[in-house]
Amino acid sequence: MKVQVVLDREDALARELLLKGDKKRALLALRRRKYQEQMIRTTDDQLFNLQHLMETIEFSLVQKDVIFGLEQGSKVLTQLNKEMHIEDVERLADDTAEAIAYQNEVSDILQSNMTAEDEEAVLEELEELERQEADRLGLDLPRAPNGVLPDKEIVEPEKEPEEEEEQEKEEEAPQLSRNNPMLA
User: Fold this and answer.
1) Which pLDDT tens digit goes with each residue over 112-153?
2) How far is Cα 84 from Cα 89, in angstroms, rounded to an integer?
3) Where does the chain have alpha helices with state H?
4) Residue 84 has what DSSP assignment?
5) What is the C-alpha to C-alpha distance for residues 71 and 78, in angstroms, rounded to an integer?
6) pTM (two decimals)
7) What CA–CA distances, in Å, run from 4 to 7, 25, 29, 32?
């Protein structure tokens, strides 16, 4: 650093003057060195304070933007709440529930007038429409099996040796309590 070079030069000058016997000028060189060190510390402190001030200002600007955003959001929400009344929402929910109930009634009536064969034909037609739509969209839907699936025996995975030891301990614990009533 340039500053350190200046300080080292003052120190070297003081040593040189002291060796020459010029104590007064050596003392002056050391005082200049001390003064420069104090100036450097003062400057560093001021730089630190300026940096801290800049960070505080930046943070305050961010806070201001956040508050502005919250105010705008609050205004929009208030406006939306003015436009949307609870009664309207409840009426819409009731209308939707009535429409669903009506659709279910129609579906039940249509289904009750159909034979099992008609129902099967409708389901096949729905499946064909789904396939056509999937082909149109380029989707590859899995095909469900048509026949009855064979019964498959469930095979348990092999247990680790540690699991087998734990299971054996669990099986032995009830036997010990039966053999020794004090443990039960």
Assistant:
1) 777 778 778 888 888 888 888 888 887 665 666 666 666 666
2) 7
3) 2-20, 23-83, 86-112, 116-137, 161-179
4) S
5) 10
6) 0.38
7) 5, 21, 15, 13
